[in-house]
Amino acid sequence: RPPRSTLFPYTTLFRSMKPFWSLARRMFRYRTMLIAALASAAISASSLGVGIVATKPILENILSSTGKTLPQLASNLNANAWVAGRIPQAWIDSLPADRFSAIVWIMVGMAILTVVGAVMTFTHAFLSLTIVQRTVADIRRETFHRVLRLPLKDIVTVGAADKVSRIIADAAALESGLNSLISKSVSQSFKGVAFLIAAMYIEWKMSLGAIILGPGLYTVIRKLGKRIRRASRSAMQSQAGLYGAALESLQGLRVVKVHTTERYEAGRFHRINKDFMRMMLRVRTARAVSSPLVEALCIIVLGGLFLIPAHAVIQRNLDPSGVIAAFMALFAAGASLKPLTGIINDIQQSSASAVRLREILDAAPEPG
User: How far is CA 60 from CA 66, 304, 319, in A?
Assistant: First the structure.
């Protein structure tokens, strides 16, 4: 029987990052801002998707000698089952009838959608960063209060530098992960889905083939993410050792100078620093290989998919404007989803910091 981790990979991934998700749930304290941020990201992505769909009639008017006028495009839209004649005929009759005016009007509409999308993107980023900053400040304050209430032996045995490292450095790393989760990943995911829907609307056969790229990308990201998470946790422990070596040497600098042990203290710091660098280099390798690997997979698959409709266009069996618009939407979807590899790596890296913070928050306080 195969192990449970291979049957339920998403469950295993969630469990391994449980401390991170438990701290991320604290962002729900700011529900109003969170809903507004998600709504802003959805509106921004929708405006971009509509803009991609609007390129199809522009290409039809440019590439085809029998391109449609703006009243004809509006009439076709009005006859659609989704619209069902809701556009008044007087509005359709007032539209300019020449093809160039149709292109100008569509470009003006796309410009308006672009401005709306930019404003919504700013609103989403502004609200997301506000939520993350407030959440991390709450976690940092609670962690410090918990450290003050820990038994004295826990501080003396491990050293104060470890606790300081968790309160400051680990909280900063957690902030990076939360920012990637709620700001970057939400925005990029909404945009990628909107572009994919637009591509499916324009040319569903070619777009459906692009979806097969998903499982391969997930496998690559999951393998690299596990390596990053393990190396990041070791790096955080080494960083705490750096704090300890530096604080001990500088706080006891008079004793160091009296006994002329500068060389010894420098050598001790150098060894800990090399260990920290080695752990960070392991993280570097996984992060560096993830982005070009995913990019190469996307280009190879999309390039292969483009050969099928290109052959149909050459044989005059397919409208070239639809193929071009669909490929533009797929390219935009790939460009939006590509940064998710780096975002997931950031979340995996910050999950190691979440584990260290969770250890303090779950520690039993000193009996009163």
Answer: 8, 25, 9
Q: How far apart are CA 158 and CA 142, in angstroms?
A: 20
Q: What is the rounded CA–CA span in Å between residue 292 and residue 341? A: 10
- State how far the Cα of 58 lies from the Cα of 325, in Å rounded to an integer: 10
Contacts of 89 (CB under 8 A, 6+ apart): none
Task: Give yes or no for residue 115 having a pLDDT over 80.
Answer: yes
Identity at 262, one-letter amino acid code: E
Given a contact cutoff of 8 angstroms between Cβ atoms, the answer to whether 315 and 256 are in contact is no
Other C-beta atoms closer than 10 Å to the C-beta of 141 total 12
d(CA 65, CA 85): 28
DSSP string, 47-70: HHHHHHHHHHHHHHHHH-TTPPPH
In the predicted structure, residue 247 carries a pLDDT above the cut 90:
no
Closest CA to 189 of 296, 350, 11, 333: 333
Of 238, 242, 235, 236, the C-alpha closest to 281 is: 235
CA proximity to 51, closest of 122, 118, 123, 126: 118
Task: Summarize the confidence of residues 132-138 as an average pLDDT.
Answer: 91
Smallest CA-to-CA distance from 297 within 190, 364, 219 is with: 219
What is the rounded CA–CA span in Å between residue 294 and residue 300? 10
Rounded distance, CA 147 to CA 57, Å?
Answer: 63
Output the pTM of the full model: 0.65
31-63 and 185-202 helices, crossing angle to 10°: 30
How far apart, in whole angstroms, are the C-alpha atoms of residue 350 and residue 268?
Answer: 27
Q: What are phi and psi of 98, to 5 degrees?
A: -85, 155
Supply the mean pLDDT for the chain: 75
253 within 8 A of 174, measured Cβ to Cβ:
no
Nearest to 18 by CA among 345, 354, 283: 354
DSSP 28: G
Closest alpha carbon to 361 in 150, 181, 164: 150
In b/e form, how buried is each residue of 238-271, taking b as 16+ CB within 10 angstroms? bbbbbbbbeebbeeeeeebeeeeeeeebeeebee
